[in-house]
């Protein structure tokens, strides 16, 4: 048997052993043997086995008529919010025989652009940006340009969240969910409420703050800027923001964290200071990630169906349009949140 100069078995070696052309061997090995007879296919696969030929994964991806991978861009898959979204995305991808490629951007827009370029080069079937949108016109222009080029080459795009970018979308009810959260506390009688918000550049932060401010207006309450602390959507961000709020506004009777992870940090900071929750200060969160029900006291929050949102986004991404029909408008699915009342919220102390 003749092998390549380095001793590595090549495609040409397989073709020679099977007595077929290299192109026929390639089609059989890469699963694109529609017009190859069963006898030829059997010869090629026997040669592969005898020579212990290992196909080139990248060449297989390029040769297959159907792209098998799907790219997902999240801010941080270790964040419980994105972990739940990813569970839903993974379930639908697996049901369709697709491989999920997960990219962590850590809320860095430039890294998200780089990931789209990389995923385009890998010829994935779809790209799902699953993090918050950005208030960044330059980034949105560049991101849109990359995604449009990808779509024109046959790729599909579905996003989770409110984005100023192309593609189908699953949009969580952030503004109305925050309105429900504010309403809950104001109806309990709270007057002095502090807010732990995420980064200003994120549309999620803007939308959730807008809902709280709408509730404050409807109930004749104030949410002055000094009672809003911006930090990372993280446990440590929530803890440091809670400490700053309590030092700046010692009369607060409630803290609204704009995600559950920050609320958990706030609970820890208050516990270290000996502040009883909810007897002295109520704490509420947003998203209803699994840990929200396990902390003490269990967290009042807004429940978003995160796994279902992931499922919907992947279903949109893999639902190929009929090429014989006129291009359709982007599809948008809105997902509502609901209040989940637990032990961390109560009327203010008298």
UniProtKB/TrEMBL annotation:
Domain HTH lacI-type: 9-64
Gene3D superfamilies to which the protein is assigned, alphabetical: 3.40.50.2300, lambda repressor-like DNA-binding domains
PROSITE patterns the UniProt entry points to: HTH_LACI_1, HTH_LACI_2
InterPro entries, alphabetized: HTH_LacI, LacI/GalR-like_sensor, Lambda_DNA-bd_dom_sf, Peripla_BP_I
Stretches assigned to coiled coil: none
Signal peptide positions on this chain: none
Molecular function GO labels: DNA binding
Keyword terms of this UniProt record: DNA-binding, Transcription, Transcription regulation
Pfam families: LacI, Peripla_BP_3
Protein name, as recorded: LacI family DNA-binding transcriptional regulator
């Amino acid at each position: 048997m003749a092998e390549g100069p380095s001793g590595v078995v090549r495609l040409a070696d397989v073709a020679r052993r099977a007595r077929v052309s290299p192109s026929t061997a390639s089609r059989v090995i890469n699963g694109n043997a529609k017009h190859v007879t069963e006898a030829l296919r059997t010869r090629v696969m026997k040669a592969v086995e005898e020579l212990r030929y290992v196909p080139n994964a990248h060449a297989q991806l390029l040769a297959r008529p159907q792209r098998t991978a799907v790219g997902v861009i999240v801010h941080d898959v270790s964040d419980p919010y994105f972990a739940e979204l990813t569970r839903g995305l993974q379930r639908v991808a697996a049901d369709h025989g697709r491989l999920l490629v997960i990219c962590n951007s850590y809320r860095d827009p430039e890294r998200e652009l780089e990931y789209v370029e990389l995923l385009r080069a890998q010829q994935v079937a779809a790209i799902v940006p699953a993090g918050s949108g950005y208030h960044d016109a330059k980034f949105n222009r560049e991101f849109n340009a990359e995604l449009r080029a990808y779509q024109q080459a046959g790729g599909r795009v579905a996003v989770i969240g409110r984005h100023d970018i192309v593609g189908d979308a699953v949009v969580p009810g952030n503004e109305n969910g925050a309105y429900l959260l504010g309403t809950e506390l104001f109806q309990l009688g709270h007057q002095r409420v502090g807010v732990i918000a995420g980064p200003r550049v994120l549309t999620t932060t803007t939308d959730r703050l807008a809902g709280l401010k709408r509730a404050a207006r409807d109930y004749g309450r104030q949410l002055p800027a000094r009672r809003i602390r911006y930090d990372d959507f993280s446990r440590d961000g929530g803890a440091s923001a809670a400490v700053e709020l309590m030092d700046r506004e010692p009369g607060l009777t409630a803290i609204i964290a704009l995600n559950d992870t920050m609320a958990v940090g706030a609970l820890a900071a208050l516990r270290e200071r000996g502040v009883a929750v909810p007897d002295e200060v109520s704490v509420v969160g947003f998203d209803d990630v699994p840990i929200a029900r396990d902390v003490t006291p269990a967290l009042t929050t807004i429940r978003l169906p995160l796994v279902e949102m992931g499922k919907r986004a992947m279903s949109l991404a893999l639902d190929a349009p009929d090429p014989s029909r006129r291009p359709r408008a982007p599809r948008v699915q809105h997902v509502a949140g609901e209040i989940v009342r637990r032990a961390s919220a109560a009327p203010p102390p008298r």
